[in-house]
Amino acid sequence: GGSAGVGDSETVSLAGLAPGSYLLQVYGYRNAANPSYTMTTGLAPVAAVVADALENDDTAATATNLGTISCSVTRVNLTITPSDPDWFRFTLGGTGRSGDAVSLAFNHAAGDVDLALYDSSGLNRLRVSQGVVNGESISLAGLPAGTYLAQVYGYERASNPSYAITVNATPSTITADRIENNDTAATAADLRTVSG
For residues 108 and 50, what is the distance between their CA atoms, to the nearest angstrom? Predict the structure, then answer.
């Protein structure tokens, strides 16, 4: 942004700018000189980001256990601060399939959040998502059955007052019901006479 007025003051709005460092240039129109001016800067106070309900989940050892994923598990109203990464442990019951993923949803303008996937030890990073949009996602396709850890953290120590994590995993097998084989008209199960 900029300001190019003809009065005794100039103002540049910072509204909508992402957190970060910025430079400000002051210059005279058509090289005019002003031997004395005052510059002030001000930012509206930022509300402190408070710990979420799943704390203490700041390490692989204290990760929130989401259990064995048989469809979809979501946790909402989570927060990130510079000293507060969040860790989640989950188990895939079968090999990851197309569409299986661990995903984050958040407002990027409120703070850039990133996502990493680790093996069960929490030491070996397997995959990472570091986008610049309102979410992150890591595919679980092709990963063998087993336990994994997801780490959620702020990019360059960013904070974010609200995010959600979802782990989707399609069940690897569906057991047959008690009246199989009834998958065609020719093999339909006979329900006998139904009255009622």
Answer: 18
Question: Residue for token digits 């995993």?
Answer: 169
Q: Say how far apart CA 172 and CA 71 lie, in whole Å.
A: 10
Q: Which two tokens stand for residue 157?
A: 């120590």
Tokens 């442990």 sit on residue: 89
Q: Where are the beta strands (DSSP E) in 107-184?
A: 113-118, 125-129, 135-139, 146-154, 160-168
What totals of helices (H) and strands (E) does the chain contain, helices first?
A: 0, 9
Q: Is the pTM of this model over 0.85?
A: no
Is 127:117 a contact under the CB 8 Å cutoff? Answer: yes
Only one residue has tokens 């996602």, namely 137
Cβ(110)–Cβ(54) below 8 Å? no
Phi, psi of 30 (to 5 degrees): 50, 40
**Tens-digit pLDDT profile for the chain (196 aa)?**
666 667 777 887 776 677 677 787 877 788 888 878 787 777 665 667 888 888 899 999 999 999 999 889 999 999 998 888 999 999 999 999 999 999 999 999 999 999 999 999 999 999 999 999 999 999 999 999 999 999 999 998 899 999 999 999 987 566 677 778 887 888 888 777 777 6
